[in-house]
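batch_manifest entry 22 of 60
target: VTT domain-containing protein
source organism: Streptomyces javensis
requested by: lab member K.T.
priority: normal
notes from requester: please return tokens only, no post-processing; we will run our own comparison against the previous entry in this batch. if the run fails, retry once and flag.
--- input ---
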Amino acid sequence: MHLMTLALPQEPSDGIAGWAADLVDAMGGPGAGLAIALENLFPPLPSEVILPLTGFAAGQGVISLASALFWTTLGSVMGALVLYWIGMLVGRKRMHAIWAKLPLVKTSDLDRTEQWFERHGTKAVFIGRMVPIFRSLISIPAGVERMPLPVFALLTTLGSLVWNTVLVMAGYWLGDQWDEVETYVGVLSKVVLAAVLVAIVVYVVMRFRGRDRRHHAS
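--- output ---
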């Protein structure tokens, strides 16, 4: 099948967007899928650039819209499965052994995390696929906890399809202004990251205060 190229004024020529455009030019839908699979494995690769660019390519007839959605969702699932299998290989016992050597944490913290995942794991995997940064990381605890693979694959597919459709369609509708999507999603990513950092700081402070209280009590 002959593929058109993105030889347009708004075609990115360098950086991550240029790399993704080259993949789509060279491979069509599978190229977009490969880019998103790698984005899952390496979260610094931004889906908020790759997906709208893929939608833009679909709008220009480089690939079909159905192909864009199919291949990017398949790429999301494949990348998530790799991380899931990494979590399985690490395993619960090894994770506990690693956790026990970390400062400022207790085994009971990990036990509570596992209990929370047992209760809310399905929601975490589904919703996590639509949250920047965590959309990749959530696959690892799913593997560690050995969530049934069919359930994990289904939730990942559904969550990824929602996220991919929103960003691909945004690029499709915005046309030459597809890159504006990154601005808005980038703000969301920064808010999520800031919230996580604040939570970590609060956790560390509370842990040190707890240790100080126990020390003075003794």
